[in-house]
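#structure-requests
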Amino acid sequence: MGYNPAMPYSRIIPALLIGLLLPLPALAQEPAPAPAPAAAPVPEGPTPAEIQLDTATIKVRLMERIAARIEQDVDMLNQKFKLEGNYYKDTNFRVRLQLNLVGLGDTGSTMLQVCDGKVLWDYQKVLNMQSYRKREISPILKKLDDPNLDAFFRSLIISQLGFGGPEAMLAGLRKAVRFDQVGEDKIDGVEVWVLGGTWRDRSNLMGPGDRPLAPTAPLPPYIPSNVQIYVGKVDGWPYKIKMVGNAPSLLQEDTRAIDPASGRPVGVKKAPPKVTPSQITLSYRLLPLAEIKPEMFFFQTPADVTSANVIDDTEQYLGYLDTAIQSETARKKAEAAKAEGEPLLNAPPIDVKPDPATKGLGIEPVPAPSSPK
């Protein structure tokens, strides 16, 4: 079966759009099962573009306070719409992310994730349907104090909880995309690296009923094949992310019938349907830190919402976390046993210093520790 322009895009949008803005498993979803220890693949060295992206991710992780405007323009399957909202991050696990979907007629929706440092709330409204979820983070953070857990695992769980923001988005793209192109540009006078690449595993981009693509076959135009991230050279901030599909061509698509006897296409080749390749542009515009107010991190359910209307998945997530900790502990023990007797590689750490010029412009680096006197 060739390219079908009427293919439902609802399964693509969450993966490519919302997935860029929300933490890795969204709060409204069930917690993902803990990963089982697996054989390590053959190491593949990072490209220069991936080294730049890793450095940018570390810089964003060090930002203690963030205020940003989010805008995502989508042109997919000949439909245009937009996601817009704000992201705020303050000290002591206080975050706020609000997004609104506009441009799809009556299909408006709102998503709000907010945490006051104690309870993480998730509110979603689609048409006339509303949902409320909450999660107590104190017992979760206590479990993360387990001495068997390293800093990377703690950072991963915190990102999954909803505190990762742009950092989680960068980490997710780093895992899903093979970045092998590096360029330079300017956005609003800021010098940026332009890091480009394509998807590593294309099987997850196709629907369950679609025919698998050959490794060298071009992706359909409704799937954005080419990914670019514009990160600040100094602050590492992801100012823009672009995803663009490839235009279909007569050579790519063969809509002719297959002769059962010979297995070859018969008839006259027709031009593929005219569909503009998908294009998704996500921008993070920094706002003054003065916009961050303490009251924006509190959430109050409406008076007509009872406890029966609120899903509390704290215990469920704690169970998931117990399993994840056991799996991570087993993995570390297996690695330690394998590495016993082998020489240790002491790679020098990446030296990332806070940029004083960014203070007050939407982000605030973590203060450098003072030297003991």
